[in-house]
Amino acid sequence: MRSFLFLFAMTVSVYAVEIEYITIETIGSGSTRKDARMDAISEAIGQVTGRMLETTEQLSSHFQTKTDNDISQSSGVENYDKEINSATRGAVKSYTVLDEKETAYGWESKISAVVAKALPSKQSNRKKIAVMPFSSSSKLTFDRMALDALTKSLENRFGLKYNKTNPMQFMAMILTENIEAYLIQTRRFAVLDRVTSEVQMERNFVKSYSSSVEDLIKINQDSATELIVVGRLDEVSFNERVQRLPSGREIKVGEGTVAISYKIIDVGTRQVKFADTFNKIIGINEMREVLGGRTVTDPGKIMLKIAADSFGLTISEAIYPLRIVAKQGASRVILNQGGRSVKIGDVFEVFKLGEKLIDPYTKESLGREEIFAGEIQITRVNAKTSDARIISEEILIDKDYLCRKKIFSKTTTSPQIKKINKEELDDLF
Fold first, then answer.
1. What CA dihedral angle connects 223, 226, 232 and 235, to 10 degrees?
2. Least CB-packed of 86, 174, 222, 303 within 10 Å?
3. Can you tell me the distance from the alpha carbon of 45 to that of 126, in angstroms, rounded to the nearest whole number?
4. Total number of domains in the chain
5. Distance CA 327, CA 337 (A)
6. Which of 320, 355, 372 is the last residue of a domain?
7. Of 34, 157, 47, whose CA–CA distance to 113 is shortest?
């Protein structure tokens, strides 16, 4: 089979996707006229889009009902062009038979086809990542009220599909969706759907955490995935306890835990880049903050969202650490991330990049030396960026420095938290 590609192209926009129409000449062969023409059309699409196998299957279904006599008069006929356009799902706008002849080996068709090709989007340079549906254990520890609220929430979310005997399985589904949502809003990744697609349903990705790296690579090899995230929801717990305030007043204080095991696999190198456990302790006040100060009636649902955001931040910072993109005066900086990734009051440690580091044994790159420069605190959050003030400076903080979120221990407090007296503490509850 031969093809002749013409550079004549027409570009249109369909639902914000740029489509370029390319005219190409190809020659197909087959035992019958329709086989030869189908072969030529498939070759044309394959040359432009690379989807030859899928196209051949679609055209086979279409041509199955056609006879050689049907198609002998079809070239250039408007209705037939529409049929081909439909059969190829819009890949072929039209085609014309330039030459068709019977040979000693069957038939040969030379056609000129107008084939659609999607142009690279502005987001095509984003790293392609697939979050496989998380599996789950059965370790769920909730008090009665929290469990009742969780059950009602899952029933409303999944309807008849919900199985009360295994709530963790459905919580793992929600966790996966929340992680995907977080990664999408970072604007750093092209997140490939592995939750709702029909292909996923057929291949039963639910057990992906225990799958081998080779199997996971095979599952994702048709989507140009660069990174695969697989995980297991190991534990979700929530319990309330009575706490006595300094004033003598007793209140109920809730605290929960979400534990996750995860791996991040580099498809290109087939290496497990990260493999770790993630444990997030979530207090009732953190849940209230997410709800804008409202009462927490369904802690399980809120905990999954908070855990997904924290886990997503862990992934995002490991691959794309926040950077300073501009400096305003001596004490203000702008970061290249906003949205759900940062919150007003968050404190970040700032690092200047130093020399490249090489492992002495494997000779692989270990990244670059990070020289501590100081700390900044978020003062404003936008959709794509955030503003921060410099709160400490060891060396001059400047543009392009890395920022990593500071983790405070229970014995330290972040700068935005002030000490409060006994009366003010009571007022919080």
1. -130
2. 222
3. 26
4. 3
5. 15
6. 320
7. 47
Cα 234–Cα 240–Cα 241 angle in degrees, nearest 5: 125
Instruction: Tell me if the pTM is above 0.70.
Output: no
Give the angle subtended at the CA of 383 by the CAs of 377 and 223, to the nearest 5°. 115
pLDDT of residue 386: 95
Say if CB 311 and CB 134 are below 8 A apart: no
Residue 289's domain spans which residues?
125-320
- Partnered with residue 279 across adjacent β-strands are 259
Query: Position of tokens 């983790």?
Result: 407
Strands 127-131 and 189-192: parallel
Cβ neighbours for 73, distance < 8 A, ≥ 6 positions apart: none
User: Rounded distance, CA 207 to CA 217, Å?
Assistant: 14
Q: 344: domain CATH number?
A: 2.40.10.410
Q: In what helix (H) or strand (E) does residue 311 lie, and over which residues does it extend? A: helix 299-319
Close Cβ partners of 171 (under 8 Å, ≥ 6 residues apart):
136, 140, 150, 154, 233, 236, 300, 304
Place of tokens 């953190």: 286
User: Using one digit for the tens of pLDDT, what is the confidence trace for 315-342?
Assistant: 888 888 899 999 999 999 999 988 888 8
- Report CA torsion sign: 62, 67, 72, 74: negative
pLDDT one-digit tens code per residue, 177-219: 999 999 988 888 888 876 554 344 434 444 455 666 555 555 5
Q: Fill in the amino acid letter for 108.
A: E
Both 216 and 310 in one domain: the answer is: yes
For the record, the structure tokens of 69 come out as 């006599």
- Among the candidates 287, 320, 353, a domain finishes at 320
Same domain, 288 and 384: no
Spatial contact of 32 and 107, defined as CB atoms under 8 Å apart:
yes
Phi-psi category of residue 247: left, alpha or beta, with phi > 0 → left and psi -120 to 50 → alpha: alpha
